[in-house]
Design brief:
Length: about 500
């Protein structure tokens, strides 16, 4: 599962370089009116590589292209579990034999923006080329320079990706691209500020927030227009609504709260980042320059509100302090087999109260967060509470690790069953969160296995007739579209 991905954090050399260079400059230098000298070729090259490195961090290339087992940066082999099977990322170090060492800049551009490998084969959209399609030529050039000149080549074989039929036909992606891939790099909207445009470019293209936060259509392409970024199930997790709706979106968040969340993953009394969002904070967002964070916020706040009708209060506003009754306190200490029939209250007391406190309000220093006034318990889906229990929380911010143990099958603390997680979650929603939510053990089973399969995967299961029908359908849609485009001009 992607939430187990703990990619070694890249040391951010750019800031070190900037600080270092800044320190070397005598203070009087800036004040004096020195004539501007053209930078030497070497300086320009170094700036270009530093920019490429910053872009690689903003685009989070390392997160998917580094195997958490071997921890060799960009050497590939990281397994992405899709409903169609496991897709392995490939070696993008400049190794001539195993990586992209022989890629020309044009071939690199084709892979990153169009999803086409040097040998002409199609990449699966597990590589977010549909978002990177909007990268500017300058940014692709800087990325290429960084990968070719500053990334250490690693001679590691690629692992083979073998999806089930019909998804093993990579050529199918040709049709998908024709339908859904937008061509052309990001175009500034002159009616908006420079900050807004920078924010949109970061959100839609570099940081590819929509890959997780935008709902998808039946063909698994991101929905566009007003639906964009309005929240989506993501495997076992749920990536919440980022539009400006006051109840189900970010409308009740201040700019400061948003900045704090993106840079640290923790806003006490509001939300914590776990799972895939913890990875985005750990590997990418915390390293962004402050003005890029501000630009992201400016853009997010301009998104038209999309309301989820079931949401009756802001997601971060539910719940109050409520003590576990003394009758259950300490009746089932941790680590001793907890019975299946135990009440949610007793389970909470034995598995959670030691950190989140008997009243659910966490510790005074907020290190252990409150479970009320928390979007994981106040939204309109139980996914993030259940996933936090099943997979725990792991994040690294400014060199400090934030950790909650998991209560899944490989738990070091206590493996909880689907029945127990359902009882516990129902207790937490009643006491501290959105009391309208109700969880069944069957729902926990589905999330444990990685979430609901999209319709496309269900109808096109291994070698099913549905699969064949689907291929025919895709070809038909493509042919019809092409014919229409031709007849239009
Ligand atoms: C969300 C995960 C993810 C992110 C982020 C990501 N990639 Fe990929 N990338 C993949 C996967 C998976 C593949 C292989 C897909 C396949 O086999 O069809 C891939 C393939 C590639 C390839 C093709 C190499 C080859 O010959 O096989 C290149 C080049 C590449 N990525 C570059 C990048 C760069 C540069 C970035 C950052 C700007 C990046 N990727 C970010 C998942 C990712
Ligand atoms: C790899 C998938 C992924 C990417 C990329 C991603 N997010 Fe998230 N995001 C999530 C998930 C999942 C959550 C829920 C985390 C939790 O509650 O523990 C989340 C939570 C959030 C929240 C908190 C919302 C709430 O109601 O609690 C904000 C704000 C947010 N993301 C903004 C962003 C922005 C802005 C970007 C791009 C710069 C981004 N995310 C990129 C998956 C992702
Ligand atoms: C050993 C201490 C510890 C225990 C035990 C513990 N937690 Fe946590 N919990 C944490 C920490 C630390 C965080 C993350 C705080 C942060 O992100 O800053 C956290 C975060 C959470 C979150 C927010 C996650 C999100 O995605 O927004 C929820 C919900 C949660 N815990 C529920 C529980 C439940 C339910 C239990 C009992 C099954 C439990 N915790 C047991 C320490 C603990």
């Amino acid at each position: 599962m992607s939430n187990r991905r703990v990619v070694r954090k890249l040391t951010l050399q750019i800031s070190a370089i900037c600080l270092g260079l800044g320190g070397l400059l005598p203070l009087s230098y800036a004040a004096k009116q020195v004539p501007v000298q053209a930078p030497s070729v070497q300086d320009t090259q170094q700036n270009l590589i530093a920019r490429g490195q910053y872009l690689a961090i903003a685009a989070d290339c390392a997160a998917c292209h580094t195997d958490p087992g071997t921890q060799q940066p960009f050497a590939g082999g990281y397994a992405i579990h899709s409903p169609m099977g496991v897709i392995y990322s490939t070696n993008i170090t400049p190794s001539k034999q195993f990586g992209i060492g022989t890629y020309s800049e044009q071939q690199f551009e084709q892979a990153v923006r169009h999803g086409i490998r040097a040998d002409g084969s199609h990449l699966y959209p597990a590589m977010p080329y549909a978002s990177y399609a909007g990268l500017t030529d300058d940014d692709v050039h800087a990325l290429y320079s960084y990968f070719m000149q500053n990334v250490t080549p690693v001679d590691t074989h690629n692992k083979t990706t073998a999806l089930s039929f019909p998804f093993n036909i990579r050529q199918m992606m040709w049709g998908w691209n024709l339908l859904f891939l937008k061509s052309g790099s990001y175009q500034n909207d002159p009616s908006q500020s420079a900050e807004w445009n920078r924010g949109k470019y970061l959100v839609d293209n570099l940081e590819h927030c929509g890959e997780c936060h935008s709902p998808r259509n039946m063909m698994m392409a991101q929905k566009q227009g007003n639906d964009a970024l309005s929240g989506a199930a993501l495997g076992s997790w749920y990536a919440p609504n980022l539009t400006s709706d006051k109840l189900s979106g970010l409308g009740s968040w201040s700019r400061e709260q948003l900045a704090q969340y993106l840079q640290t993953g923790d806003v006490p009394g509001k939300a914590q980042a776990a799972g895939p969002m913890a990875e985005a904070v750990t590997n990418s967002l915390q390293h962004l320059h402050d003005d890029d964070i501000e630009a992201i916020i400016t853009y997010l706040q301009s998104l038209p509100a999309v309301a989820h009708p079931q949401q009756s209060k802001p997601t971060g506003d539910f719940g109050q302090a409520s003590n576990v009754d003394t009758d259950v306190r300490g009746t089932a200490p941790m680590g001793i087999g907890l019975s299946q029939e135990m009440s949610g209250k007793a389970l909470y007391d034995s598995a959670c109260a030691s950190c989140h406190q008997p009243d659910g309000q966490g510790t005074a220093d907020h290190f252990y967060p409150s479970l009320s006034h928390n979007t994981a318990t106040g939204g309109n889906t139980p996914n993030n509470l259940i996933s936090a229990i099943l997979f725990g929380v792991q994040r690294e911010v400014k060199g400090k690790a934030i950790f909650m143990p998991n209560f899944g099958p490989d738990s070091q603390v206590q493996a909880l069953s689907d029945q127990q997680i359902a009882s516990l979650s129902n207790y937490i929603f009643q006491q501290y969160g959105n009391p309208d939510l109700h969880v069944t053990p069957e729902q926990v089973t589905v999330l444990r296995q990685g979430g609901k399969q999209p319709l496309l995967a269900r109808i096109a299961g291994p070698a099913s007739i549905g699969g064949i029908v689907l291929v025919v359908l895709i070809v038909l849609i493509v042919v019809i579209r092409r014919a229409r485009q031709k007849s239009r001009g």
